[in-house]
């Protein structure tokens, strides 16, 4: 979860708070009541709200009751040396995957999301010793073969319905442009080999909508043309979107980002990870303040689910079903600031109480 939003952190934007009373009023008609049936799947990642075994069990139980798809999101280190040298895999890695496998929810579709890159999406992920693997080019044959073995192992063990073979890959083009072409060659070869072995598996690479819509780059057209062509060549388009990173607060702002997506994408769309603030976000160590409240969160969720229905999305994955204050308390001090960015985005608060957005989720899920 120690993910990135370096552009946001460097900007260190300060936005004035909004009162809950200022949020747009809700339509009197019950949400999603105009639809007889839902035409997309809904789910959560298996990210736990707390560190204890019971917290994890409660998370999987909540997913089983409130979802028809879920995500195992593997955004951490890769045992490069073991894959390259055909040596024993690190016990921590094997145990983690075995644990996820043992908790698989029977009868439910799974999205498996795998990160190839570091948390700031600028480099290949570290090995389990915390060091970067040595290479001349990202698409060195050793790297290609190792990553195929890594993905193959995870797919074999977890048997997903959908695969994100690289998480938030457009960020590499932002942070390490010189590596983008090599990345494309690497991922094309690994994707082709995985597709041949698992012909029924739908494969994509996730892209951050908050850094596609109105991107902060010098040559916007070149950046977008490159990425949109890449996205439209995938089995489906996998979107990662956190609107508060774009300082969006209203339904109109959320809709503009989605309209941009619909106007440029010709493949089926899935929101593979998304969430929005239900409380103000203040991180003193980053000089960062972003207002948030339950109404804004509910506005975003309703906008998202309505677009999913009207535009025939494959599925929508909300990042965390419940605020993870208890888990956050266990984070090392050096990553607490980053972890706090997503802490208060649950459809349940830290005590497990329903937020407005949970009622909207339930109304759509019941269809």
General description of the model:
This protein has 367 residues and is an alpha/beta fold. The chain contains 13 helices and eleven strands. The strands form two sheets. Strands 5-4-3-2-1-11-8-7-6 form a nine-stranded parallel β-sheet, with helices on one face. The chain has a two-stranded antiparallel ribbon with strand order 9-10. Strand 1 (41-45), helix 2 (53-66) and strand 2 (69-74) form a beta-alpha-beta unit. Helix 10 (294-310) packs parallel to helix 13. The chain is globular and about 60 Å long.
Question: Key features?
Answer:
disordered N terminus, nine-stranded parallel sheet, 11 strands, 13% strand, 40% helix, alpha/beta, TIM Barrel, two-stranded antiparallel sheet, 367 residues
Secondary structure blueprint with pairings:
Layout: H1 6-11, E1 41-45, H2 53-66, E2 69-74, H3 80-85, H4 91-102, E3 109-114, H5 141-158, E4 162-164, H6 170-175, H7 180-197, E5 202-204, E6 206-208, H8 220-231, E7 237-241, H9 251-264, E8 269-274, E9 281-283, E10 288-290, H10 294-310, E11 315-318, H11 325-328, H12 333-343, H13 356-365
Parallel strand pairs: 1-2, 1-11, 2-3, 3-4, 4-5, 6-7, 7-8, 8-11
Antiparallel strand pairs: 9-10
Helix pairs in contact: 5-7, 9-10, 10-13
């Amino acid at each position: 979860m120690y993910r990135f939003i370096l552009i946001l952190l460097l900007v260190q934007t300060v936005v004035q708070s909004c009162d809950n009373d200022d949020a747009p009023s809700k339509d009197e008609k019950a949400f999603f009541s105009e639809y007889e049936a839902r035409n997309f799947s809904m789910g959560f990642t298996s990210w736990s709200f707390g560190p204890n075994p019971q917290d994890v069990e409660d998370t999987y139980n909540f997913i089983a009751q409130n979802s028809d798809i879920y995500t195992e999101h593997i955004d951490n280190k890769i045992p490069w040396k073991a894959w390259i040298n055909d040596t024993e895999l690190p016990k921590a890695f094997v145990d983690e995957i075995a644990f996820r496998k043992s908790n698989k929810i029977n009868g439910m579709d799974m999205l498996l999301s795998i990160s190839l890159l570091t948390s700031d999406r600028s480099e290949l992920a570290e090995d389990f010793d915390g060091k970067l693997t040595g290479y001349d080019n990202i698409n060195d044959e050793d790297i290609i073969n190792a990553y195929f073995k890594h993905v193959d192992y995870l797919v074999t063990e977890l048997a997903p319905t959908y695969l994100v073979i690289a998480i938030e890959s457009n960020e590499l083009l932002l942070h390490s442009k010189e590596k983008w072409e090599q990345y494309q060659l690497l991922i094309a070869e690994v994707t082709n080999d995985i597709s041949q072995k698992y012909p029924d598996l739908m494969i994509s690479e996730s892209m951050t909508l908050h850094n596609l819509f109105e991107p902060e780059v010098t040559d916007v057209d070149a950046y977008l043309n490159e990425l949109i062509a890449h996205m439209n060549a995938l089995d489906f388009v996998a979107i990662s979107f956190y609107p508060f990173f774009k300082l969006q607060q209203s339904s109109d702002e959320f809709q503009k980002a989605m309209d941009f997506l619909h106007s440029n994408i010709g493949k089926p769309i899935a929101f593979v990870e998304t969430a929005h603030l239900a409380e103000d976000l203040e991180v003193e160590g980053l000089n960062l303040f972003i207002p948030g409240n339950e109404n804004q969160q509910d506005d975003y969720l309703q906008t998202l689910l309505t677009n999913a229905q009207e535009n025939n999305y494959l599925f929508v994955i909300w990042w965390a079903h419940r605020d993870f204050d208890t888990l956050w308390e266990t984070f090392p001090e050096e990553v607490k600031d980053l972890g706090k960015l997503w802490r208060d985005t649950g459809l349940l608060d830290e005590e497990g109480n329903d937020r407005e957005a949970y009622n909207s989720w339930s109304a759509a899920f019941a269809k």
